[in-house]
Amino acid sequence: MKILEKYTFGMGDRFARQGKAQLAAVIEAKKLGADVTPVWNKSNREHITIHTHPDSQRAAAAAAVKALGWKGSYYVDADHIGLKTVDSFLAASDFYTLDVADFTGKAADEKSVAAFVEANKKFIGKLSVPGIDQPLEITGDLIRTTAGKFLLAVQEAGKIYRYVAEKKGGDNFVTEVSIDETDAPQSPLEMLFILSAIAKEGIPAQTIAPKFTGRFNKGVDYVGDLAQFEKEFNEDVCIVAFAVQEFGLPSNLKLSIHSGSDKFSIYGPMNRAIKKHNAGLHVKTAGTTWLEEIIGLACAGGEGLKIAKEVYRRAYGRFDELCGPYSAVIDIKKEELPAPDDVDKWDEQRYAQTLRHVQSNPSYNLNFRQLVHVGYKVAAEMGDRYYKALEDNEKVVARNVTENLLERHIRKIFV
Ligand SMILES: [Zn+2]
Asked: What are the tens digits of pLDDT across the range 170-182?
């Protein structure tokens, strides 16, 4: 089996032009003592919006690795795929995020539920999990309810895993199971039984992506109860370690955080937890790099700034269309968005400071940032004009991309 490293960092490169700038952040992180392996992730939805094929992501990653002489391993993640969408990722990817959120909350057949309850009966009562202060209270009802919510989803993950394994060979890829795009978060106790089901299904999961308490809006900070998050996160880390021992899952199994990028206020708690428990971690980011492209273009002035302003104007005019598919993961107060006519009067710095995720800057506007975040479709429609601007301003864009990943993300999570 391909064994995923302890610390891995997922980065999205929507337009496949920032491979080198992103990898540079990982290389710099090594000098700071953080041994982080890069994973390029791009979801099917992003490929469709930008009209790209997964093979192009592999090519961009390989080119960056070659250009910078990166000798470590790296991965290309087929992010959030299911049986209907996996085929186009079979050649390019060696990391598969099996998204079975749509199958949660639907009942598996009665026979499998009964077998699952029977297999986990031994946990009924008080269960002590190393690292968690209070013993967990487990009832037969809880096991049955958890099976009702998640067993069918895990069975579906099994189908996808076996399909990919048949096509690629089971030893040639890393498997993640993701249930983060559901309505309700999963408790650490539910996680225990989800992992039990994953083991029983024979899925060699190396990462598991639950949904946590709080809101993970795209490209902006976490919104929620920080103390509750920290408690839950620590308990999940302990549950994962326990499940590895108990169910014989891969020994490097770890949590995967689908962060939606930029969750600065939970990076501290995550950093403390992985160090305290000596645990691995995978953190996925994505849209943050596209936003740095726009920041870099704005900083460049001229045509770059013009494009940045146009992206905003068009996104503003197509608010419902662009925000619709992301409604569960953005919170934009429309009345706090600047009028495009006003934005047109801004200089380079004003635009960059409004968009750049530096919360202490008085110009920063999280509503503006979220709208531009979902506006990548507008840039995709600009086609060559957008790509040419990225090329013409490669240096300033790259500087922003690298600094953002290194200083605002990797350093805070892993160093
Ligand atoms: Zn996700």
From this structure: 999 999 999 998 8
Tokens for 38, please give them: 């890069």
- Domain 7-287 falls in which CATH fold? TIM Barrel (3.20.20)
Task: Note the pLDDT of residue 183.
Answer: 87
Q: How many angstroms is it from 185 CA to the middle of ligand 1?
A: 13
User: Residue 196's pLDDT is what?
Assistant: 98
Given the structure tokens 């994973």, which residue do they identify?
A: 39
Measured CA distances, 186 to 93, 213, 357, 408 (Å): 28, 8, 29, 28
Please tell me the distance between residue 395's alpha carbon and the centre of ligand 1 in angstroms.
31
Q: Token digits for 385? A: 């004009």
Rounded to the nearest angstrom, the distance between the alpha carbon of 282 and the centre of ligand 1 is 12
CA of 101 to the centre of ligand 1 (A): 10
Say which residues have a Cβ less than 8 Å from residue 130's Cβ, sequence separation at least 6: 238, 241, 242
pLDDT digits (tens, 9 = 90+) for 296-350: 999 999 999 999 999 999 999 999 999 998 888 999 999 999 999 999 999 999 9
Ligand 1 is an ion; its neighbours by CB within 5 Å are: 180, 258
In what helix (H) or strand (E) does residue 234 lie, and over which residues does it extend? helix 226-247
Q: How far is the CA of 38 from the centre of ligand 1 (A)?
A: 17
Distance from the alpha carbon of residue 258 to the mean position of ligand 1, in angstroms: 5
Residue with tokens 């895990």: 154
CA of 214 to the centre of ligand 1 (A): 14
Q: Are 39 and 74 in contact (CB under 8 A)?
A: yes
Residue 293 phi, psi dihedral angles, 5° rounding: -60, -45
Distance 50 CA to ligand 1 centre (A): 19
Distance 321 CA to ligand 1 centre (A): 21
0.90 exceeded by pTM: yes
Mean of pLDDT values over 137-141 = 96
Nearest to 207 by CA among 187, 236, 246: 236
361-383 pLDDT tens trace: 999 999 999 999 999 999 999 99
228 and 236 Cβ atoms separated by less than 8 Å:
no
**In the chain, where are the structural domains located?**
7-287, 288-408
